[in-house]
Write a structure and sequence with these properties.
The chain has 742 residues and is mainly alpha-helical. The protein contains 28 helices and 7 strands. Among the domains are: 138 residues, Alpha Horseshoe (Serine Threonine Protein Phosphatase 5, Tetratricopeptide repeat), CATH 1.25.40; 47 residues, no CATH class; 114 residues; 130 residues, Histidine kinase-like ATPase, C-terminal domain (Heat Shock Protein 90, 2-Layer Sandwich), CATH 3.30.565.10. Helix 9 runs parallel beside helix 11, helix 12 packs antiparallel against helix 13 and helix 25 packs antiparallel against helix 26.
């Protein structure tokens, strides 16, 4: 699927940057304009447009290229006669593109370089950029750095000429290039730059950029962002009519994401949407690819007979050239699930042959190899040949490590477990099962499931809002149509008796008013029903969040109580101190969750309140008897849970250490400062006037758990941690308040 997306994106984007597409009707108008136009300057432009249409026309026919060349020659003759430099540069570039389509690659490069020299000589920056785009597009795939260099030159030229939309589109092309070479981080960076430019120029057609972000986040295993951006791309594309190929790709991507999240009903739903569009566009490759995805989704849900039916219906599109493993792999899985191992055997033999053909170009795609090896392992396990699986499992592990694929690494641990169990290696099976659980839990934990559910609710809510707007628009159109019909009727009747016209008019107006009132009542009732349903969804979400925070707080309190009970049976002072420190840390976290479920604000914590509560608790815990004074200089700062928890733990450690160690005579002053230094940049400072640090103290050594914990928590905040001794100890944490992602 990834390869299919990249090929289409590159083709679509490059054509959109190089020129504007033209349909046949528009082409006919252009040709008529050439015949009837008397202005030669306008004719030159029309000849150029017609030539580009013939070049970009679907299908590769020599007659189309001949027509493009002839029309382009007419354009360049007129342009040179009247010294139309921009048209001349564009025609020179078009000559190079025609040569490329004829298969004359060297000549094409030579002609394009001539066009570039002419554009540079005459300071035609837009035309220079167009040549760079064309040269980059036709560069071999293995010369990625040269291709990127051309696109960056084009970006600079577009920026200088104010062609910001073309600049953004070229950034998308760079995003595609880096995605194709498995560099998702750089690909994400370029896609976000394109979005930033389009937002600045108030262009909202960012579905390509969102699709690239979703594709890259999916590769990274960040399914929350992948799903969010894919749903946003779907929404934008559905609102922009005429983007069926992109919508097809987005549906296919959503189907894949839902499949990998094991939400198979949604996965199959999107795959079926995609295949409908692919058939409508007569895209055999897309039909083939999406059919395979659909069958895989049905197989994952245990609908093997239905999956087999889908495979058989599209088998005519399958070609075994270049050892295409898609169909054989899926046939093996389905037939094994149906316990028809004799029918799976020929496909297994086919894959064994392909796996031995290491020089086959098709199997340089690691995704194809993964599907092939998993199917072969599945067949061997089902047919009692587990001892033969290890060679393929090890190959899969090498691929997963090479691509840093955490999901497949977790699945491989489960496969190891199955093979070890089947061969009697029970200790190995136990170890692999344990590792699988750890990796799987880290990828699909409860919090991620909740976040994805929230995203789905948000998306469904947006779709309902859209439907409400459509209902309103339909109502307005219906009212307008009724009004026009009445006006026509009254005009016709006006030729008859005036009194009859007046009576009909009064009666008709009465009927219209009553009908309008009925329609308005129906719409009001529908809107009220939708609003009530949405309010219920919001209330349920808020209740669930409060319940979660309440239970987290209760669980922490239970653990604190258990630790307190345990301390009663201990005499070792170090153990008692460790338990006490753990209780303080848990109470620091418990305060946050207590505040969240007791207030209406479920997303953030007032840190000024929190610091006061935490200090009161620690004073009571250590029994300072007001001998140790506290001063506060805190601003009303709101932080979300992800930052409030580590900040609270740092406060707990710093204040506890000051109370215990800073004042041998149990008397002194502790000051706490939390304020904003600049926009979203904050400083937390805990200082005391105690005995200070030892002369040979080195925080980098991290000898104590508390020091190690504070430094680690500061890193978790993406902030800096500093401890100094100046008439006491001063601990400073600088951090940036995070903003929630979309």
């Amino acid at each position: 699927m990834k390869l299919k997306l990249i090929i289409f994106f590159t083709l679509f984007l490059t054509l959109s940057v190089l020129s504007q597409s033209m349909d046949k009707e528009h082409f006919n108008k252009v040709m008529k304009g050439i015949v009837y136009k008397k202005n030669d300057v306008e004719k030159a432009d029309l000849y150029l447009k017609a030539a580009r249409y013939c070049l970009e026309k679907e299908g590769e026919f020599k007659t189309d290229l001949d027509s493009a060349s002839l029309l382009n020659n007419q354009s360049i003759q007129i342009s040179r006669k009247f010294d139309l430099k921009e048209n001349i540069a564009q025609s020179m570039l078009l000559d190079g593109e025609i040569a490329k389509e004829r298969g004359h690659k060297d000549l094409a490069v030579k002609l394009k370089n001539k066009a570039l020299e002419y554009a540079i000589k005459n300071d035609l920056k837009k035309e220079q950029a167009a040549v760079y785009i064309s040269l980059g597009y036709n560069m071999p795939e293995n010369e990625t750095s040269k291709k990127e260099e051309y696109y960056k030159k084009a970006i600079q030229l577009y920026r200088e000429t104010g062609a910001f939309y073309d600049e953004a589109e070229t950034f998308v092309e760079l995003s595609i290039i880096h995605n194709s070479i498995d560099d998702p981080a750089t690909s994400i960076k370029f896609a976000k730059q394109a979005i930033k430019i389009k937002k600045r120029i108030k262009r909202h057609d960012v579905f390509k950029e969102y699709t690239m972000l979703s594709l890259n986040f999916r590769v990274q295993g960040n399914y929350k962002n992948a799903l969010s951006y894919a749903l946003a791309a779907e929404k934008i594309t559905e609102n922009l009519n005429g983007n069926e190929k992109w919508l097809n790709l987005i549906y296919d991507l959503l189907g894949t994401i839902y499949s990998e999240l094991k939400i198979y009903d949604k996965s199959v739903e999107y795959y079926k949407k995609a295949i409908v569009i692919a058939k409508k566009c007569n895209d055999a490759e897309a039909v083939n690819a999406i059919t395979l995805n659909t069958a895989r989704g049905l197989y994952s849900r245990g609908k093997n007979a239905e999956a087999l039916e889908v495979l058989n219906s599209s088998y005519k599109y399958y070609s075994d050239k270049n050892c295409n493993a898609e169909y054989p792999s899926l046939y093996i899985l389905v037939y094994c699930s149906l316990k028809k191992y004799n029918k799976a055997k020929p496909y297994y033999d086919q894959l064994v042959k392909c796996s031995n053909d290491v020089n086959n170009l098709k199997y340089k795609d690691h995704i194809e190899q993964e599907k092939m090896y998993y199917a072969m392992i599945h067949f061997l396990l089902k047919t009692g040949q587990a001892d033969k699986t290890y060679v393929y499992i090890n190959k899969l592990k090498e691929l997963a490590k090479l691509n840093n694929d955490l999901y497949n690494l977790s699945q491989l641990e489960r496969t190891y477990y199955k093979s070890d169990s089947a061969t009697g290696n029970y200790q190995g099976a136990f170890n692999h099962l344990k590792m699988y659980k750890q990796l799987n839990d880290s990828l699909f934990n409860l919090e991620r499931t909740k976040q994805l559910s929230d995203l789905q609710v948000k998306y469904e809510t947006d779709k309902k809002d859209k439907n409400i707007k459509l209902l309103k628009q339909k109502g307005i159109l219906q009212e307008t149509r009724l009004h026009n019909e009445l006006v026509i009727r009254y005009v016709f009747i006006a030729g008859l008796i005036i009194l009859f016209i007046l009576s009909i008019l009064l009666y008709s107006r009465y009927c219209m008013k009553r009908k309008s009132n009925t329609i308005l009542e129906q719409k009001r009732a529908e809107i009220n029903r939708q609003n009530k349903k949405l309010r219920q969804l919001v209330d349920e979400k808020e209740w669930l969040l409060k319940e979660i925070h309440h239970r987290v707080k209760n669980n922490l309190q239970i653990v604190i109580s258990l630790l307190n009970t345990q301390s009663a049976y201990l005499e070792n002072e170090d153990a008692l101190l460790a338990i006490q420190n753990s209780q303080h840390r848990m109470h620091a976290m418990s305060l946050i969750h207590q505040k969240l479920y007791q207030t209406e604000n479920l997303s953030s914590i007032d840190m000024s309140w929190y610091i006061q509560e935490l200090v009161n608790y620690l004073k009571d815990s250590f029994g300072t008897d007001n001998k140790i004074k506290f001063t506060f200089e805190t601003e009303p700062i709101e932080l979300d849970v992800a930052q409030a928890v580590p900040l609270g733990l740092i406060l707990n450690e710093a204040i506890s250490n000051a109370i215990k160690y800073a004042f041998p005579e149990n008397k002194g002053l502790i000051s706490i400062v939390l304020k904003e230094k600049s926009n979203c940049k904050y400083t937390l400072q805990i200082a005391d006037n105690g005995i200070g640090l030892q002369p040979d103290f080195d925080s980098a050594e991290r000898d104590s758990l508390g020091m190690n914990l504070m430094i680690g928590l500061a890193e978790q905040l993406d902030g800096s941690f500093n401890i100094a001794s100046d008439n006491g100890v001063i601990i400073t944490v600088n951090f940036i308040k995070r903003e929630a992602e979309i």
